[in-house]
Amino acid sequence: MLFKDYFFTRFKSLLKASLYFMLISLLSACSDQKNNNHLTDVRIGLAKQPSSALFHIAKEKGFFKEEGLNAKISFYPSGKRALVEGLLTDKSDYIACSDVPFVWKSFSHNNLMILASIYTADNLNRVIARNDSGIQSLNDLARKKVATQKQSAVHYFLHSILINNKISHNDIHFKFFKAELLPEKLHTREIDAFSMREPYISQAAARIGKDKVTVFAAPGLYIQTELLISKKEFLEKHSAVSDALLRALIKAEKYAKKQPEQAIDIVVRAIRGDSARVRALWHSYDLSVNLEHTLLLRLELLGHWLVGDKLINEQAIPDFSQRIYSQSLKTVKPEAIMIIQ
After folding, report:
1. Residue ranges of the domains in the chain?
2. Does the structure show a pLDDT above 70 at 3?
3. Which residues contact residue 139 at a Cβ distance below 8 angstroms, ignoring those fewer than 6 apart?
């Protein structure tokens, strides 16, 4: 009887302990669910490229959640496509794209607003050419079939290449394709060269053979800026979300500066890029969340290019100083605003 009493007492103790831990686990799960329910959903459209680095870092390190956001990221072949297919179709609340697509669509959409610049680089884009097309230097592009994504940063980069090498636009057989189609077009010899950035340059080189192509860079020729964009009506209703989003990106900026190797690893995994290429160029990326005054000058210059090259029907250049939404950055990082509106 004593043994049975002891066994029964031990059994009740173990049962109570098990029920206790089950209850704690259940309460913890409920607490986690409650916290998740308090996260604000935010839809973000990005391209898988180094210029989206701060978003990839913020997602990986949990900075969005720390700021109360459930970041739902959709990927597009390019920033231009994120703008056109994401933001302008109301599938995204915010997108990141380069300066050129923003300027292009600003002619027809006066509600597009810039919250901040999130990346600047002067050595991002490349021209890749087939060696058997007789292209050994950039001067050899004359009279060749050269492609790019129209009305985009790589289009302006190609324009700058031609101007810098004194090649008339009339001497180029221009072809325009979607970004993701360019490697195959070069592989099938439909074109002789194209202007693009990673990962499409590496994709083309791998498909054709690295020894059968030449990749040209032009450091300093074009200072490209990646912009955080949203619509005016959304920003006016959701200022707290914009503040939280910028705080998360600023945390990512600080992390990238303090832990560059870890940041590179995160970005390479996120974009499935060439690790060696990203590492080689990382020092040339400026991953800063800011609004610089020179941004307005560059936007106006791009507007004149679009009009001058008849890539757009409108003639009046938008007043880009009215397309800056500085309230959120002023709230979270006022010293980063160097723009005069």
Report:
1. 1-31, 40-120+225-338, 126-216
2. no
3. 165, 167
pTM confidence score: 0.84
Q: Under CATH, which number does the domain 126-216 receive?
A: 3.40.190.10
Nearest in space to 56 (alpha carbons), one of 206, 272, 321, 334: 272
| Choices 3.40.630.30, 3.30.830.10, 3.50.50.60, 3.40.190.10: CATH for 40-120+225-338 | 3.40.190.10
How many other β-carbons are positioned within 10 Å of the β-carbon of residue 221?
Answer: 15
- Helix, strand, coil percentages, rounded to 5, for the chain: 55, 20, 25
- Measure the CA–CA gap between 244 and 169, rounded to whole angstroms: 45
Give the model's pLDDT for residue 274. Answer: 78
Alpha-carbon distances, residue 127 vs 107, 137, 201, 204, 293 (angstroms): 28, 10, 8, 11, 30
- Reported as a single tens digit per residue, the pLDDT across 5-50 is 544 555 455 445 555 445 444 444 444 444 455 899 999 999 988 9
CB 135 within 8 Å of CB 161 = no
40-120+225-338 and 126-216: same fold?
Answer: yes
- For 214-258, the DSSP string reads EEE--TTS--EEEEEEEEHHHHHH-HHHHHHHHHHHHHHHHHHHH
In DSSP terms, 127 is beta-bridged to 195, 216
